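As a warm-up, study this chain.
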Amino acid sequence: MRFIVTGATGFLGWRASVLLAEEGHEVVPVSRPGSRPRAASAELDPVRIDAGDPAIRDLLKGSDAVLHFAGQPSPAGARDDPAGAVRENAGTTLNLLQGCDEHGAGLIYPSSVRAAMDPPPDPYAMSKRLGENACRFHPANATVVRLTSVFGPGQVAWEGATGAIAAFAARAIDGEPIVIPGDPGRTRDFLYVDDLVPALAKIAAERRWNQTLTLGSSVNTPLIEAARLVVETLGSDSPIETPGGDLAPGENESYDTGAGLNFDVRPLDSAVASYVDWLRRHPAAQGRTRA
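Now compare it with the structure written out below.
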């Protein structure tokens, strides 16, 4: 199959591009001009064009599916610039839907379980819900996948990634305290990226369009337990601090999710072990104080 992958120099886009190519698919990685450099994606040679540029639609000719990872991935970033988040998460989606309709491709729109809440709890979730609605109302083939807390190779806190597992691992490698503000018992459904990508490819191959699916492990883990697992896996002596306090809307909730698509997922301890093994070999980890 031929995949267009937007956001290809970011965490999810890079890993999807790598794994799909390893499976023999034709992959066209796309990244906006001036995107943040990351060590893992340094060897990619993406097409440099913004996902909201009308010219990108010509790139979709002859493609089977678009994996639209480009956008604003950070709740904090969306709070700082709500209008920008709507443009990045909904406006670019509408542009790509136009291209899919013109060229017969399908679009997979990675959303968030936060967007399923009524009302969406913050600007990030609202921008994702607007992107979902673009997929539902547009005549192009599209499927919304509401993702849980995805982590794995390509997600590096030292390069700006904000995921919990990535943040815990970076602090533990540095020997610094892991701080969990708010309720340390709030849960997340952690999903390893190498389990997610084959599921996305399956959706495209089976042409499961015009659906809304939740993709997760169906296991809800308290953040405090995830932090302990990371520290134990790394053999770190980093303390875990739980100062409590108030958090921004949407941050202190638990998201109880059930997977809407059956696919193989590895246990969290195995996934964390694989991730930290990859992270220890990452250029950004070299020369740091090791656990």
